[in-house]
Specification:
about 250 residues; alpha/beta; Rossmann fold; 7-stranded parallel β-sheet; 9 helices; globular
């Protein structure tokens, strides 16, 4: 069912993993997709081709989410090209996991800059278009690390907890203008990041998950698309856990 047909959505950090899956799911539902990426031109071009093969318009931007000037330029170009910005998925994120006593200032600041400031930059640049149109949806991809904290992830947990706070505050600011803001708090999802976990860490994580498995991107992307759709029109300020029960 193409319940996002004709809409225009920005997905940040979409050249791989969860962002890529969300972008493709939006396209399968009929939505046009613009996305940014930072490193792989090849992966970005492949995603653009895959999106267009689904019959939608696609725009790719090599743009740093942490740079507000660059983000504003991208958002303005998306508006010119699509004629509208209906939704934003703040997915871009990095990890630099270390115990706090070993964590450098750069490890801290770069994770906060991309994961949290990047979401602020895109939200700030896009939300005016949504408020003017009296409709729109912002979805922040957070983590259970932002709910319960994870040892060795002080920077990442802080950034994801910040996203949850930002979600709730922004939802209160823009709700009267017809704009909804929600978050997904993800657990262990099978991506390149989790594939790099040592086997003993994977086993320990699995033991803590009531459903007994890691999540798949197919567990995330349909929920993301749903949260952008009119079927979720009365949901705002929510933090939905997709974690197999890990953070209960």
């Amino acid at each position: 069912m193409k319940y996002l047909e004709g809409t225009g959505t920005i997905v940040t950090g979409a050249s791989r993993g969860i962002g890529r899956a969300i972008a493709l799911e939006i396209a399968r539902r009929g939505g046009h997709v613009a996305f940014n990426y930072l490193h792989s031109d090849e992966a970005a071009n492949q995603l653009k081709n895959d999106l267009e093969a689904l019959g939608v318009n696609a725009l790719a931007f090599k743009a740093d989410a942490g740079d507000l000037k660059v983000v504003r330029e991208m958002v303005n170009e998306v508006k010119r090209s699509f004629g509208r910005i209906d939704a934003l998925v703040n997915n871009a994120g990095i990890t630099r996991d270390k115990l706090v006593m070993m964590m450098s200032e750069e490890d801290w600041s770069e994770v906060i800059r991309i994961n949290l400031t990047g979401a602020f930059n895109f939200s700030r640049a896009a939300v005016f278009n949504m408020m003017k149109a009296k409709r729109g949806a912002i979805l922040n991809i957070s983590s259970i690390s932002g709910l319960v904290g994870m040892a060795g992830q002080v920077n990442y947990s802080a950034s994801k907890a910040g996203l949850i706070g930002m979600t709730k505050a922004l939802a209160k600011e823009v709700g009267r203008h017809g704009v909804r803001v929600n978050a997904l708090a993800l657990g262990f999802i099978e991506t390149d990041m989790t594939a790099a976990l040592p086997e003993e860490n994977r086993a320990a994580a699995l033991n803590m998950i009531p459903l007994g498995r890691f999540g798949r991107i197919e567990d995330v992307a349909p929920m993301a698309a749903f949260m952008l759709s009119d079927a979720a029109a009365y949901i705002t300020g929510a933090v939905i856990q997709i974690d197999g029960g890990l953070a209960m």
